[in-house]
Each structure stands twice: as C-alpha cells, then as structure tokens.
What we know:
By secondary structure, the chain is an alpha+beta fold. It has 2 helices and 4 strands, in the order E-H-E-E-E-H. It has a single domain, classed as 3-Layer(aba) Sandwich (Glutaredoxin), CATH 3.40.30.
Amino acid sequence: MAYYKYHIFFCLNQRDDNEQCCNNFGAEDKFNYMKKKLKSLNLYGVNMCRVNRAGCFNRCQEGPLLVIYPEETWYRLLIMKILMKLLRNILTMERKLNAY
C-alpha cells in the first residue's frame, strides 16, 4: 500500500549560469500554491497528497515540470490553468489528466 495516494514532485532547480530552468518559469510559485491549496482542503498528508521539491529533471527546455506518483505522469505547467485543472482532478480523486 502506498503511503501517499499522490506524491507530487516539482522541479525547482535554479541554474547559476542563466540557462533555462523550471524555476525561471514560476515553478516555485506553482509549488507553493499547490501545497497551500491541498493543505487548506485537508487533502495533504498520509493516505492523501504530498508535495515535494525536486532537483533538476534534466528536461529544462520543457519547464516548468512536475511528476506525480504512483502514476509516473509528467505535467508541463506553462500556464496556471493547467495547474488548476490538475488540482480539480486531485480534489475529486477520479481520473488523471492526459499525460504531457
């Protein structure tokens, strides 16, 4: 049995050399929003959801990215609308979005 129903990892890597990375595209803000929203809805914790920081996924040109386990599904969060749709999906605990 999984410890979390959904374990969500956000790439929050920040490159020093000004190369493209997820954090240059608002990944930190999206991470904070999702974590705060899940907590406010009492969906954060054991047998529910967990949101964690991750290092570089080595897909910097595609960022910002997150991956959700156990489905191993990747999402590209270029616009907030995608994050909102993903949150609605988690809130209803129904089906996952189409993979990125």
